[in-house]
Amino acid sequence: MNLTYYPFPPFKINTGQVNILDIGNSQMYADICQGFRDRTDDLRVSNDNLELQTMSSQCSWYGDLMLSVDLNRLFMKKIQTQIIKLMADEQQVAVLDQSRAMIAKVMEASFLLDLPLDVEEAPGLDQALKFAGIHFPTDLTHNPSAVLEALVQTHVELGLKQCPVMTNVSHYLNPEQWAVFEQQVADLDITVIIIEYSETNRMEKFKNCCYYYVDEDLADWRDMN
Predict the structure, then answer these.
(1) Tens-digit pLDDT profile for residues 82-114
(2) Residue 72: other Cβ atoms inside 10 A
(3) Is the previous residue joined to 116 through a cis bond, with omega within 30 degrees of 0?
(4) CB within 8 Å of 33: residues ≥ 6 apart
(5) Between the CA atoms of 147, 149, 151 and 156, what dihedral angle is there, to the nearest 10 degrees?
(6) Which pTM value belongs to this model?
(7) What is the pLDDT of residues 53-67, one digit of tens each?
């Protein structure tokens, strides 16, 4: 994958490595963030043959790791669907039988009231799983490193093809947590893009990443590495 922001040559995005665009120019930072959200044409994405692709087909914008990423809101419906696909036939039958038994018990109890009540039909598998209340635990969602790990792992488990794009990730992780993140991306062989804002070149901090730095004067430091 390649990202192009005029007049810079394409930024090559690697798979199996954290890709960082570290920007020191506020306008360029804003343009790139808006570009990933399909709100401007300033940022373009292409395949390895430099053939233009739509941003939505290649990238999933999540924004700030702790301000915008709600794992349950983003993924739970897809996770429930995936669980149903993975359930054996006998498991699906058992869930449906138990759902019908629950409805029958509720209906039986409703007859004790002298009221014109009715009970909905037995729920389908998707409704049964929603009723089960599957969710990411609260203590995980308050831990930046755990949120990041879960987001990346969820992408793989759900078979999502788009590249996750986030901002300000390094602000939330200590060096040990960042190293774990780098290793996870390498082990899963997934493509991840991180957008950061910095007034200084931080190549040493991200020496194990695919790192690009553009300073306030729009100088591209690739030619100076």
Answers:
(1) 988 888 888 888 888 888 888 888 888 888 887
(2) 14
(3) no
(4) 63, 167, 195
(5) -170
(6) 0.87
(7) 999 999 999 999 999
